[in-house]
Specification:
Strands 1, 4, 5, 11 and 12 form a 5-stranded mixed β-sheet that branches. Strands 6-10-9-8-7 form a 5-stranded antiparallel β-sheet, with helices on one face. The longest helix has 22 residues. By secondary structure, the protein is an alpha+beta fold. A hairpin with a 3-residue loop joins β4 and β5. It contains 6 helices and 12 strands.
Length: about 210
């Protein structure tokens, strides 16, 4: 059986998006910055899925409270989304999926990240690289791990150290929960993208970039 994954990238703008009254109420409990991010991301998800399913944005059965994994009701598939400072990355599939996005040029404190969260096997791979390559690889690992955590519906503090990259096989493994996932890593325009899923036959549709 072939599974399908559709991806969208939307550059973040200040224009308001259409959301439900419940989502408006939830946004009022957040800080001004988080409230704006919350409204914009949920509105964008509603917008792209409304076009995808040919329904109205407010009829998209999205449930995505702050800090909770997003869900689609009415058997409309699975949704995951992630944002960085200038873009929102959305993935829809008929199977469970996790996605993550970061700027390709994001400057991370990779040395402390590696020391704190990465396993010995990963450290051995990273320590053989130059500083610039090490930073890029550490960012790649981070993005893939975040995508896996979203698939798992876990948390960074609890689960990040247990997700182990098996880069040559394009896999990631949770050593505590005994979960093995397939991974995809892509660079698209200004961004690096991570995807985690458990399908052995996944058809990835072209990335739709909306201006």
């Amino acid at each position: 059986m072939t599974n399908v994954l559709q991806l969208w990238i939307l550059p973040i703008k200040n224009q308001p998006k259409l959301v439900s009254d419940y989502e408006k109420d939830l946004s009022k409990q957040l800080s001004p910055k988080r409230s704006k991010e919350f409204i914009y991301s949920r509105g964008c998800v509603r917008e792209v899925l409304a076009d995808f399913f040919n329904i109205k944005p407010l009829n998209v059965p999205l449930e995505a409270p702050p800090g909770k994994p997003p869900k689609l009701k009415n058997s409309l598939g699975n949704i995951s989304f992630s944002h960085c400072k200038d873009a929102l990355f959305i993935g829809w599939s008929d199977i469970k999926v996790g996605v993550d996005i970061e700027r390709k040029d994001r400057n991370i404190k990779y040395a402390s990240l590696i020391k704190r969260f990465y396993c010995e096997e990963e450290k051995k791979v990273l320590e053989k690289l130059s500083k610039s390559d090490q930073q890029q690889k550490a960012l790649k690992y981070w993005i893939i791990k975040e995508a896996a955590i979203k698939w798992q519906e876990g948390t960074i503090t609890r689960d990040l150290p247990y997700w182990l990259i098996r880069e040559k096989q394009n896999k990631i493994y949770h050593e505590k929960m005994d979960i093995l996932l397939n991974t995809l890593y892509r660079k698209h325009s200004f961004w690096s993208l991570g995807i985690a899923h458990n399908s052995n036959n996944l058809e990835i549709k072209p990335i739709i970039k909306l201006n």
